[in-house]
Amino acid sequence: xxxxxxxxxxxxxxxRPGPLNGFVDYRGRPVHRSSSGGWNAGLFLLGLEVAAxxxxxxxxxxxITYLTGPLGMxxxxxxxxxNAWSGSGSMLxxxxxxxxxxxxxxxxxxxxxxVLSILxxxxxxxxxxxxxxxxxxxxxxxxxxxxxxxxxxxxxxxxISLYLIAIAQGFDKPCGLxxxxxxxxxxxPQEYVSRSSFFNWWYFSMCTGITIxxxxxxxxxxxxxxxxxxxxxxxxxIPAFIMFLLGTSTxxxxxxxxxxxxxxLGRSFVSLARTSLRVGTxxxxxxxxxxxxxxxxxxxxxxxxxxxxxxxxxxxxATSLVYGITFAQITTFFTKQSQNLDRRFTSSIIxxxxxxxxxxxxxxxxxxxxxxxxxxxVMRIISKSPSGITMLQRVGTGIAVSLVTMVVAALVxxxxxxxxxxxxxxxxxxxxxxxxxxWVAPQFVLIGIADVFTVVGLQEFFYDQxxxxxxxxxxxxxxxxxxxxxxxxxxxxxxxxxxxxSNGETWFSNNLNRAHLDYFYWLLAGLIAVQLMLFMYFSxxxxxxxxxxxx
Length: 551
Fold this sequence. Notes:
The protein has helices spanning 3-8, 38-60, 63-68, 75-91, 93-104, 106-129, 152-181, 189-223, 226-246, 261-281, 291-311, 313-318, 321-328, 333-337, 357-383, 391-422, 441-465, 471-501, 517-540, and strands at 19-24, 30-32, 253-254, 341-342, 433-436. By secondary structure, it is mainly alpha-helical. This is Protein NRT1/ PTR FAMILY 5.10.
């Protein structure tokens, strides 16, 4: 910890007057600790996050149902399309973060994302309501289905609406959390601890919105109408946006360098490459240096260290990608797997398949306070670390839990297939299998607990270990793990479907009673086991930017 941080431990917060270095208010004026930032500002951002996650998961949690229903896609095609959209929403933050850190600023990036989201959800609602935009229904008893299903124009309008939301995610995902964490000064011991807690409560807020979405939105979409369901998502974002704007005077704004993060990275890597070449080809000559070239040398050394610190992140990033594949299954095969189970909650209430995702987010909502208020304080006493356990220990624990999740999912799917065979329902894909929906709840709960460790751990890790001016890009790198994981899942599904279809028994048959999702889950469990070993190997050698004990 810096000398300033050590000295500040002996002073009350309010006794440290003077503006904060590197931060200004919305008018560009210096800000003071007592009148800006902290939890007062953070609460406005948490409120917007609840609404944003409600809206986003109101679409993503039930997207595969819409694609295989009104749009008439096959299961494999729908899963690939859903993963491609989800992956885009997690890859575009690399672009959004760069624009925010160099030009827009995080505040304006969040505002732009919210406006694009409202527009995108509104267009989705129109695509499900207006006759020129709404796909015509196909009926199995009809003798002529040549004119049913969506037209090319309807598909185009739908996917433009959908990808407008993905573009909005490109700005919101990296900037929302980064801007929230900016409200806590890392040089102050108390605010540093609060910032670590903020990451937990940010994810808590996310999951609150997700839980409401997968229960309420999916029920409305499945039982009342897709138009109302999508339209509601657009409307809910408007008051949340107003609340975000009302908090403007309380926010701390990070001073921008007006340089693109990618340009800065490029210059750092060039300096590192030049130094490596110089060291490899000649010995340094001693020469007299005046103040100017001494300053240039210091700048070069700083760039080299920056490049090395970012390169050290790559093994952690690469060995976390399989978790992104696992994460992609929540809204695709986990949801589809439960569609033909006995979903009766009461004699008159049928639980939508997507609603079961709420068991995972409820697990997160329950576990985050336990982790933040019970596990972390106990681990602080044991480890003498402010965070309780290191960030990479937290991530590794979550990856191990995700391995257990895939094993449980495979066993449950084997049970479902066995039940279908026992009751002679193998060739009746629309029939309800006499097996309770709650059989698949444990896999949702387990992946929720894994998220508390892995997702939150990776968010804090990539924010904390990046240079201060590139923290939006750091969170975009975290998002790219989920994005590339979704793309890898799509590629994996397409390849397996092509290979197994040639044998006449695809793992992803439209008739899930003849499919083999259990094989796919076992394959993912094997990949996670390999990933975990590699992750532990690289984590042990990782040197933290802030002198925290390694994994």
